[in-house]
Design goal:
Layout (H helix, E strand, L loop, with lengths): L4 H5 L3 H11 L5 H8 L3 H13 L3 E4 L2 E4 L1 H15 L11 H12 E2 L2 E2 L6 H15 L6 E2 H12 L6 H10 L4 E3 L2 E3 L2 H5 L1
Antiparallel strand pairs: 1-2, 3-4, 5-7, 6-7
Helix pairs in contact: 2-3, 2-4, 3-4, 6-7, 8-9
Length: 187
């Protein structure tokens, strides 16, 4: 059983406290740090991770909770619980997948990560399948190089992409080495 990436996101106390501060109305990093009792550096790290995960956003009015992302996730979970096997969509899985990939990938490079969770899963899985082979151990330096190629000119960096790959179970990590888990091959 794998832990849900959203649950794993909030296992860090600093991220949980920063998120709570945003929920309670803190709309700038300084206000978040003050309300959460975090140092400026810890606040910045927590907010960066929360934004990369799509649970908070920053707009013209400052930081806010991305309630739409939570609603989308709840719809997807409800759909799966009712017997569906992915996001509700009238098109076939292959058509939907191809459409998502055409939208977010150009010439073998990531244009941007989708905000919608189910689409993000499609893009991350595609990158994992095209980048890493089962049975091969990759040192972190090599993983970074492979992911940098996907991220050229994209508003997402290779570290965020690597974190998604690990959090979603496409890669496992131990002692600075990464590999494709056996369960990913069956997916």
């Amino acid at each position: 059983m794998t832990t849900d990436p959203l649950i794993r996101l909030f296992t860090d106390e600093g991220r949980a406290r920063a998120f709570a501060a945003v929920v309670l109305g803190a709309d700038t990093p300084a206000k978040v740090g003050e309300a959460a009792g975090l140092a400026p550096k810890d606040t910045a790290v927590a907010l960066r991770r929360l934004q990369a995960s799509g649970v908070i956003s920053e707009g013209a009015t400052g930081l806010s909770v991305a309630y739409g992302a939570f609603r989308e996730r709840a719809r997807e979970e409800r759909f799966v619980a009712q017997g569906g096997d992915g996001a509700p969509d009238a098109r076939s899985g292959d058509d939907r997948t191809e459409s998502v990939l055409r939208t977010f990938l150009r010439d073998g490079r990531l244009v941007r990560l989708p905000a919608q969770w189910q689409r993000k899963l499609v893009v991350i899985r595609h990158i994992a399948e095209r980048t890493f082979e089962a049975g091969v151990e990759y040192p972190e330096r090599e993983v970074n190089e492979k992911l940098r190629a996907w991220c050229e000119d994209a508003p997402v960096d290779h570290v965020t992409l690597r974190r998604y790959l690990v959090d979603l179970g496409h890669l496992r990590r131990q002692f600075g080495y990464y590999w494709v888990p056996e369960s990913a091959n069956a997916a």
